Amino acid sequence: MPDATTARRIVLDPEVMLGKPIVRGTRITVEHVVGLMAEGWTETQLLENHPQLTRADIQACLAYARDLVASERVFPSAA
What we know:
Helix content: 40-55%
CATH topology: Arc Repressor Mutant, subunit A
CATH superfamily: Winged helix-like DNA-binding domain superfamily/Winged helix DNA-binding domain
Distance between the termini: 32 Å
CATH class: Mainly Alpha
Number of domains: 1
Number of helices: 4
CATH architecture: Orthogonal Bundle
Number of strands: 2
């Protein structure tokens, strides 16, 4: 369950980016932000290359991803 800050910054709109979660007011997806960070981009690099983002937006993307993983259910198979 996203907290209030994340909910204000991350939105899902079926008309934008096929409904993927995006940073409000942009076409930048959570997937894109988290993916760049996974590739080793720093917060500074993200902000320099995406001037419409703020530090709080990046934190909201990470919190959204954390909350998504936290709510994931894993069912081991008897393989």
